[in-house]
Amino acid sequence: MDKRHANYQPWEKSFDRIVTPFEEFIHDETASGLILMACTLVALFLANGFLHHHYEHLLHTELALSLGGWEIRHTLHHWINDGLMALFFMVVGLEIKREVRIGELSDPKAAALPIVAAMGGMLVPAALFYAINAGEPGAIGWGVPMATDIAFAVGVLVLLGSRVPKTVLTFLVALAIVDDLGAVMVIAIFYTERIAADWLAMAVLIFLLLWALNFIGVRKPLPYFLVGIVMWFAMLQSGVHATLAGVLTALTIPVRPKFKHKLFVEHMQTLLDELRNNTITGKSRSEKDEEQCIIRDSRSRALLQTLENGVHSVESPLQRLEHSMHIPVAFLIMPLFALANAGIPIDVAGLGQALTHPVALGVMVGLVLGKLLGIAGLTWLALRLGLGTLPEGMNLRHLIGVGLVGGIGFTMSIFIAELGFVGQPENLLMAKTGVLFASLLAGVAGYLWLRFATDSN
Prior knowledge:
The protein is mostly helical. It has 2 domains: 21-191 and 241-257 and 316-452, Na+/H+ antiporter like domain (Na+/H+ antiporter like fold, Up-down Bundle), CATH 1.20.1530; 259-314. The chain has helices at residues 21-48, 52-59, 76-102, 108-133, 150-159, 166-190, 197-215, 221-238, 244-251, 261-280, 287-291, 293-296, 298-314, 317-341, 351-355, 358-384, 396-405, 410-420, 425-452, and strands spanning 62-67, 70-75. A hairpin with a 2-residue loop joins β1 (62-67) and β2 (70-75). Residues 1-12 have low confidence and may be disordered.
């Protein structure tokens, strides 16, 4: 941009840099990972310091929404995990649909290896955990080590810079999104305690209404969001975990834009030409007055508003909603989740005994060893069988690094632990302990492997 013709500020660089949606996604996930790490440390401090009583009291404080005789009352911890996390799952659903429709997973040949890697990264950890805890109440937590945390995993690769090819990052993101889909299915099928058929039927009808909105051509996200809230309440009453309403709502958001690209370009060019002519032929000729033209002239303001409307119309509703939701979810909801769930009391003297507890051991073996064997091992087998090829620039050493980094299971793993160990506070504590230590070990090991065992580019 020419600074002579703009009220230029150093921090206003939106026109100077063109960023792809994938680059923006990676940037947000990296920053989110850093904030999550900070919130985890704060939660651990609160749970183990002199404020631990206040911390527990705050999490168990009840909050209610009421209207007349109708009321929903839950603890703050429950509102975060069942309410706010529905928005997190909505973003997960948007990412899944985007990848399947227009991303890496839309090409069957390109998607084959990430899908195989994700399947291996889910099945092997679950099997190892179950083998360690078979016959014990803790066996119900077999789903805990299945998940990979995109934010932390992406953050590790970004720290390596050009040492890791971008294709490795793309492979990891595709793998993690398939992993998220698997985790959603596990939650829906295996971690539902009871079913209220009438409420579930209502949720199904609302889901069909969302598809009807898509079918008749509704392109604004707000109607989907409002109907999705009603579905969230129905699922909350049905016994199926309410956060899944976020995923289901996301799957109904339209992918196709309202305007075609060619029509958009032609229309925008006409509007820009008129805006340029309107500025040149304005009554005020001084440079200062020209800078104020848009503020003073109603026609210029109308042209700008039309330009904005046109941009929104040519954007995919799904991508626009994902873009608008990603920052509040990454920088507000996920940190709140970490603050509410990562605060576990740690007894340093008994730490060795805690880490050898079957549940903690199962989680750590599943995330660190299971993810490595599942992701790298099954992908190598698929390559040997000729089921696909690694992306350009990626080799088997990078694949091992992805397998290690895939063992970072923070957000979704803790979420599944909260669902699986209801009524088992000791096992829940051991599962969270295992997740934290395994994620730390996997992140460090993955970074060091990719830093020293692969060639720099």
